[in-house]
Amino acid sequence: MLSRREFLNFSAATIALTSLPNQIQSKQLIRNYKLTAEITPYSFDKKGVLDSLWLYNKQTPGPVIEAKENDIIRVEFVNNLDEASTIHWHGIKNINNMDGVPYLTQDPVQPGGTYIYEFPVNNAGTFWYHAHFETWKQISKGLYGPLIVKNHLDKQFDNDIIILADDWRLNKNYQLDKKSLGSLHDWSHAGRIGNWLTINGKKFPEYSVSKNGYARLRFINASNARIISFSSSLDNMKIISIDGMSVEPFIQDKFNLGPGQRIDLLIKTDDMSTIDFFEVSGKKPLRAFRLNVNQSSKKNILQKDIKLQPFKKAPPYKNPKILKIHMQGGAMGNLSKAYFENVEKNFRSLAMEDKKFWAFTCKCKKRRDNNFRCLE
Ligand SMILES: [Cu+2]
């Protein structure tokens, strides 16, 4: 299980007294981490067929980065891969030059190079980090991990468990299907859908939770393309946060999680002994993970209530400005031409020369059925 154990491997928090970027004030706690990206032998099946993944600190997922609201996260990134890389902190409202977008907010970190990421985290929630250079390949090879920001309210949970899901594509030898990386067929269809679900890097892991307590489950979808659907043996699941933002709690019997998305559940463990979760986006439901409900050593947790983080209601939308953004393309042939880097090109050359299959916004006309039709 991803736990505090990894967290203890990192140096203790220190106090920032030096001059820091604009948004960072002095006397904030600094959480120090080191992430080294490197090729790592890894075996997906028990027979031990070795594969090589690209991982942070030789582990999948990468180490949990954890901080408290208003701390500063400082990460020394070392790139031991044989190609450039950067790290993006997904969902963090970040300082521009810490956002990890190569060529836009920073130069790519070259093989053998290092980069210091240092940024404040001002909102408690569930986030994640991942490589942001040739993302379609570097994330698929394993370069990602969870980033959790807590505040004082999180102490109330008896259990706080990260559920980071990935949808790997393996070949028949249970090795990463590297041939399909960059497949133009996938790019022009629904993306690179996998065939091997892992939760925190494992097949059907089990976690203990305390009986008659509250558990917070933090779901993260690190897949390339699969919209993961979770259902469970519970009658219903209470969603308390979406994409790192507290929401008015609501109940679902199933929820979808797109690539990059996060959802936090609040579970009250009453008289049940196990709770199973399933991934149900495919034809057959897959067992995802199990919670084993154990008798707690404390017997005082029966009646307590839990106080959740306040949430912001959506503002009232009066006279909104409507922008039409039309997306088209893909293998179904409804994009004839589009602009790429200010040059108008036909679909064939966009696909063959630039590997671009999709475009936003064309000259289009609203039809009677309220759909849009492209004029070109
Ligand atoms: Cu991202």
Outline the structure in words.
The protein has 376 residues and is mainly beta. The protein has three domains: 147 residues, Immunoglobulin-like (Sandwich), CATH 2.60.40.420; 127 residues, Immunoglobulin-like (Sandwich); 48 residues, no CATH class. Helix content is 6%, strand content 42%. It has four helices and 26 strands. β15 and β16 form a beta hairpin. The longest helix is centred in the C-terminal third of the chain and has 8 residues. It is globular. The N terminus is likely disordered. The site of copper (II) ion has 4 residues, from β6.
Order of helices and strands: HEEEEEEEEHEEHEEEEEEEEEEEEEHEEE
Average pLDDT metric: 87
CATH evolutionary superfamily of the largest domain: Cupredoxins -  blue copper proteins
CATH architectural type of the largest domain: Sandwich
Computed Rg: 22 Å
Strand content: 35-45%
* Count of spatially separate domains: 3
CATH class of the largest domain: Mainly Beta
Helix content: under 10%
Biggest sheet details: 6 strands, mixed
Query: What count of helical segments does DSSP give?
Result: 4
Write down how many β-strands occur, each being a DSSP E stretch of 2 or more residues: 26
CATH topology of the largest domain: Immunoglobulin-like
Terminal Cα separation, in Å?
Answer: 53 Å
Q: Give the names of the bound compounds.
A: copper (II) ion
Task: Please mark out the parts with pLDDT under 50 across 5 or more consecutive residues, or reply none.
Answer: 1-22
Silhouette: globular
Structural class: mainly beta
Spatial order of the strands in the main sheet?
A: 11-10-13-18-15-16
